From TrEMBL:
InterPro entries: ACOT13, HotDog_dom_sf, PAAI_dom, Thioestr_dom. The keyword Repeat does not apply. This is PaaI family thioesterase. The keyword Metal-binding does not apply. Residues 1-21 are annotated as: Disordered. It comes from Microlunatus ginsengisoli. Belongs to the thioesterase PaaI family. Coiled coil: none annotated.
Length: 185
């Protein structure tokens, strides 16, 4: 049996790659994060709003996805959360624009954390559905994006929220609606 990595993610042989001289210099990005279980453990003893505020204040580490994707929590309030991020070309898709997954991740983070702000200590959530409408293309030149999520209907088992992503000039780039399963313990 061939190991998974050998089949699906082979190390490229620089001598066998055609056209590499025309591709320009390779770029790289380093991602650093802290132990995610430190924050999660502390979060289990706090209300969702207090937990997210602790991240915002720097008392708890942000989740690794924020470093990986290059965005951060900007503000929280009861039933709402806002993230900001400036995409670069490392999140481009094959057609030369920011991948929809980057925008969707911002939207999911904003609406999920908006729901989280409504939850008491010891209660968590997970996304169970998200519907995204992409309205305009996003490029590395779009500047800082702002994703704001707000709860439209809290619930004991399922909560609903909406979100949008806006460019620096305020134009709406994408919208989303989603639902989160509420989980105790």
């Amino acid at each position: 049996m061939v190991p998974y990595d050998d089949v699906y993610a082979p190390e490229p042989d620089p001598d066998s790659v055609t056209g590499s001289a025309e591709w320009g210099e390779a770029r790289e990005r380093t991602v650093r994060w802290h132990d995610p279980l430190v924050g999660a453990g502390a979060g289990a003893t706090m209300s969702g709003l207090d937990y997210l505020q602790s991240m915002l204040d720097g008392r708890l580490p942000p989740p690794p996805i924020a470093a990986t994707m290059g965005f951060l929590l900007a503000s929280v309030g009861p039933g709402e959360a806002t993230f900001v991020g400036t995409p670069d070309e490392s999140v481009y898709n094959p057609i030369g624009v920011v991948h929809g997954g980057f925008v969707c991740t911002l939207l999911d983070s904003a609406l999920g954390c908006a729901v989280h702000t409504t939850l008491p200590a010891g209660v968590g959530y997970t996304s169970i559905e998200i519907k995204v409408n992409y309205l305009r293309p996003v490029t590395a030149g779009s500047g800082e994006l702002t994703a704001r999520g707000w709860v439209t209907k809290p619930g004991r088992r399922v909560a609903f929220a909406d979100a949008d992503v806006r460019a620096a000039d305020g134009k709406v780039l994408a919208t989303a609606s989603g639902s989160c399963l509420i989980m105790s313990g």
